[in-house]
Amino acid sequence: MNFTLERVPVLLVDDQEITGYILNKIFSENSRNDFILYAISTPFDALQKAQEVSPAVVLLDLVMPGMDGLTLLEQFRQLPDFAETPIIMLSSQEESFFKAKAFELGANDYLVKLPEKIELLARLRYHARAYYNLLKNRESHRILKEKELQFRIVTQSILEAIVASDLDGTVRFWNQGAETLFGYGREEIIGKQVDCLFPQSFHTEFKESFKELIATGNLQKGDVREWQGLRKDGLEFPMEISINSWTEEGRTLIASVMRDITERKHEENRIRYQANYDLLTNLPNRNFFVQHLDESISLAYRQSVSFSLLFIDLDRFKWVNDTLGHDAGDLLLQEVAKRMKHCIRTTDTLGRLGGDEFTAILYDISPNGTRIVARKILDELARPFWLKGSQAQISGSIGITMYPSDGENKEILLKNADMAMYVSKNAGKNRYWFYNPNENQ
Question: What pLDDT band is residue 220 in, cutting at 50, 70 and 90?
Fold first, then answer.
């Protein structure tokens, strides 16, 4: 594919021929002559045409007979070849609902057709340039991975397990690294089937990889995959494997280079956990909770259900910190988290935003059900806490907002819940307050 902005293919899918006429005129009058237009008027031919011309940008009309633009957008995104191709939706007017839906389904831009010539060309160049840069980076990365893999096979064969087999899977070569990794001596494994090094669930996948390499004849490149290995003692472990060709004494062998990545997996899991959870209470942190709120909104929209968002602020937490010390304050936060978790269902989500602020999503629940949970949380917080031999008495202030009646996006819901919490605190604490635009104002 040509990665330069010269004669960039643009695919237009629009049942109105006037749109293609206008675009052709704009492109022909463009002094840089950097776009070539392919226009079709029926959405059912769009995918086939896209396969033929490999567009750098796709322009989709929102409303078309037989199939709307959003449905076609979904079909594009389901195909690997067009999962990341820039797609710009065209509409006759600014419609916030369809605009939001288009971005949710993977659109890159949304234009009220057709914008001014300068703006249109600028947007097309922007998306085409970004797409070509992505493809160039991916190609560079692929080439780099190939070179790294070849270097690793040559220079690290002693440290890594190298196993070579015939095309039928019979082990013919076994190095010291493989003996260390799997526990089999050379005399135990030579002549056996190589799939004994993998759990049963990976046997088919390994054989399919062999067939793929043999069928394509592309035995030199290979790729790196993460599979499960099986040691002689029956212990399974995560490993990285690359499959390549190896020619010895005139015959072709399949060389598999393997390494144990258990420690790397543990570190990845640890980093992932630290990025998403509060280390003091083991509750979802702010970032993870907001992400979960986004998911809850999408799910509730699809299922046509409501949920409530609670902001919970501890009253007199500062007094505990100042009087009993920060260790006691940390212990209090841990105990608070435990008590509140017992007040909600397994389908609900409790998180810590930071400091003494907690938040909860009560999914598929009515306002009356929310009242019951909020009251239960307040009762639990009002019970005395014993912190290293000292008694502490606190309470809570809860602000509540409901989806979708109080808002349909996370920004509004978070703001409303926070506002309701402050009203609750100002009203005397140890109470809950539902968001009400008039009362809160």
Answer: very low
